[in-house]
Amino acid sequence: MAESLQMLLAGEPITLLADRALYWPARRRLIIADLHLGKGAVMRRAGIAVPSGGTRSDLARLAALLDMTGAASLWILGDFLHGARSTASDAAWQAFRQAHGQVAVGVVPGNHDRALDADAAGAQLIADGTLEGPFEFRHAPEDAEGSSTHVLCGHLHPVLKLPGLPAHPLFWSGERRMVLPAFSAFTGGLRVDYRQARGSVLCNGRDLLRLA
To answer: Residue 99 in 3-state DSSP?
Structure first.
């Protein structure tokens, strides 16, 4: 187990980080999926009693990863927002952008991003299916079926449960595809069968475990 794991993906050196992120050194780019800003506020408006502070906590984790890696850019592979924008999540994100104004932010729009105003968020929209280096960047893996490139995507929130342990987020590797875990700590997950997870990497926020 290790806090970071260096590996080759499609022949390209990348680093997996235990706090649910991928770093691409050649581009100095931090890559995450499914940030879901404002999810707690959406649920509270729907009458579901959930604690506040989830957005601030997720952005603090993200800030720590940017500082640790020295990333020049941040790409979010869909579901930047959870739903309608909220005053609290907007204020938290704007404070984050002011603190990291030197970082270029790109967003591949996801199915939750109908209310996304990229200009107001200080972000650039990245077209779904954008190709760069050996990678194709998408939100949902099913949109890339049959792709001849190596797809990096999110959307599924993969998790894996090992015997005697709770389910943990998973960097789910497959043939020409890696599905990143949801970055937001306040998400559910798609339970992946161990037999489908060989070669994938389990993470718990502190450690990484590559599955044989």
So the answer is: helix
